[in-house]
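SAMPLE LOG
Freezer: B-3
Tube label: C17
Construct: single chain, 303 aa
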Amino acid sequence: MDTSARFERLAREPFITVDPGGLRTNRRGGKLREIASRRELLNLLVRRDLQARYRDSFLGFLWTVIRPIIQFLMYFIVLGQFLRAAQGIDQFAIYLFSGLTLFAFFSDMVFGSTGSIIGNAGLVKKIYLPREIFPLASIGGAAFMFVVQLGILLLAAVLFKALPAPAEMLWFFPSVGLILVYGVAIGLLLSALNVYLRDIQYLTEVVMMLAMWASPIVYSWQMVTDAINRLSLPSWVLEIYAANPITIGVLGFHRAFWGAGTLADYPPNLGLRMLIAGLIGLVLLWIAQRVFTRLQGNFAQEL
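STRUCTURE (predicted):
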């Protein structure tokens, strides 16, 4: 290649100013436009993460189907049959699988994002690109896994004739949107904090385990209300439980796929609760992005 021609081409390129927060100051759209301009790289990172999950595996991507089915069977047999949880919930198999599917999406987003910066330390230290692209790539991989499991759930709901009316299935969209907003926000925040404090990834495992059992996945909303009434606890305890965005998202997902549910199986004003949780999630997402931007300046040094 002609060296002089390359230098002339570089000389015609405008200077790009990057402020201390990592924003390109002479481009409209800020980080969103910068990430959108790297969408091809984002797609490559998503595919690389998916391929790396089952590299050198004989079954390969079949594990995306095998894993959720084995997990479902374990909970269905142990909790549903041995511990009799299925007796209080009609169509318990679909109820359980729908809750596990949505929570697995949230869990995969958070776990993948938390270690994404450290896992791409080589790229972070060598070249400039928007650091948010790494947790977003992990979230893209989690979305692919979710789509696969969603297909299995839909097929199972059809076979068991458990689907509700078509209008009820529209709850799918706000439920997934709510979980996605909180997954991205928490993923961005933890991915940055994990660079400075590596214990974050281990703490996340504990918190996610607690979050699963604090959500109505293997038990119903009606069981929670009955337990609170039986223990004579104040009503605000139930309100705190219902304020959990994962709880609200799972309940909305149940309404989309579990046709055996009645109004008693959901808290009142579920749509309003979901709207309020979504607005709070958007504020949390903005805060998480600002914290990420503040912390990313020293990523290379910490890694």
